[in-house]
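Entries read sequence, tokenised fold; example below:

***
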Amino acid sequence: MAAVEFRNIDIVFGADQKGALKLIDEGRTRDEILAATGTVLGAAGVSLAVERGEICVLMGLSGSGKSTILRAINRLNEVARGEVLVEHNGAAIDVAHCDEATLRDIRMHTVSMVFQQFGLLPWRTVRDNVGFGLELRGMGAAERNRIVDEKLAMVGLTNWAGKYTSELSGGMQQRVGLARAFATDAEILLMDEPFSALDPLIRDKLQDELLDLQRRIHKTIVFVSHDLDEALKLGNKIAIMEGGRIVQAGTAEDILLRPANDYVAEFVKHMNPLNVLRGTAVMRPAASLAREGDSVVLDRDGRVKVKVDPEGRPLSLDLDGRAGVLATADGEAGVIDDKLAHDADCIVAPVDLKLKAAIELKRHTDLPILLVDSLGRLAGLCDDDEIYRGLLRRLDG
């Protein structure tokens, strides 16, 4: 069961909903529907599943419909047709059609929202803003303060608990908004361009902090952005919208390498692939590599081989009859000790290694980087040729 699922939803604003829906079924554009019915198309035929623990970024130009469908998740926008399923207490609830008591329970316990303009109460302190949702639930002061203290520490605002929001910078105010959302312990966070009003450096820092928090708390986040760099940095899944419709949904790599149409291609044409592409996209798969017995051949002449165990895990390196040194880099950033890298003949790294990290690691070795899966089994090789093709986005060659 997905945490959130849109099933063929249509959202229209205006009196003639029936006429607008008929024109949607005919495939008419937003402008055509407005001219014919005086009704504004918010979303048409939107189907999308957001898995538990995923960050899904809805992006597109202003007016594309991204905030419109975000606000359907907690029924701030009414759906004219279709279903919006939210996982609540172990069941999939259609928030578009559930009763008011169920909707209130979902809003109080399952879905929390972080707004672009922070949505803070200026007459309340930071502590009171963060605990506001808990106060509405009727939670006692002692338990409320414990949770608020925990969330303020999480976002680095412990020393600002007694201040009023007007005394905080924009970045700090946004952290208060995040802490308030986290305090409800909602499993699903809706974030409507939360960083767009901030200076670029603060924005970048908060993006990093959100990713760090997500690694610890594993929430389901639906995030609206009009910034492709932000979407590619944050999103496990990205849905690009145009005119109220989703034109492509997938991973950052999918969208960068295989844009669905000219609109998407225009979005991504200036994107730097260094921070987007990973080893999985650029590598030569292990299944395509030449083998000699229990060894995989790493060079064209067959003089350099890596011995693997029966499960495919690299064991040792043979450099034309001489034992070589294998060194292991950790994480998608390819972190490796300088001395270890200096002494290495060949480097083993995770398969989700970013292209930028692969280039850094290649400074230390003339041999391909061995990419391994989560069980340590050889998944493929990343050498200069794979890196060049990745930079040129020519990965099918």
